[in-house]
Design goal:
Layout: H1 2-5, H2 21-86, H3 93-108, H4 113-132
Length: 133
């Protein structure tokens, strides 16, 4: 019936179809595709950023654990040395050697100014102790 009123038969379309059907679909497909690509790009950027942050945090944590381990080892050695000194036991040369090895390791983890100062004071105090021994 629509075809009766149109002079150009190429303008007729079957009943139930929208005009410019192909262009209509492309009009919705382009923004959806663009949005999908943008979301994928944001996801990739976020994943890379989080991976780099995780790597940095793991490095800091690893350094903190190693630093605490070195501090604990030195503390145990120095406490043992102090206890043996109080009991006036003179066979402490092994502990002297161990402390002499642990102090530079402890100092190597000092990365802040107050930590460097404390490390220097410990090394100086131990050197003075060894001179008096």
């Amino acid at each position: 019936m629509v075809a009766l009123f149109c002079e150009d038969r190429s303008m007729t379309r079957p009943l139930g179809t929208a005009p410019n059907d192909g262009k209509f679909r492309l009009a919705f497909f382009k923004p959806v595709l663009l949005l999908a690509v943008l979301l994928i790009a944001v996801c990739i950027f976020t994943a890379v950023y989080l991976f780099s942050q995780q790597s940095k945090i793991a490095d800091v944590l690893r350094e903190n654990v190693a630093s605490r381990s070195a501090a604990t080892d030195l503390r145990v050695t120095l406490n043992s040395l102090i206890e043996l000194e109080r009991k006036q036991i003179e066979s402490v040369s092994e502990l002297h050697d161990r402390a002499a090895r642990q102090i530079p390791v402890f100092g190597s983890y000092a990365d802040q100014s107050h930590e460097k100062e404390l490390s220097r004071r410990i090394a100086d105090g131990f050197a003075e102790y060894l001179q008096q021994w």
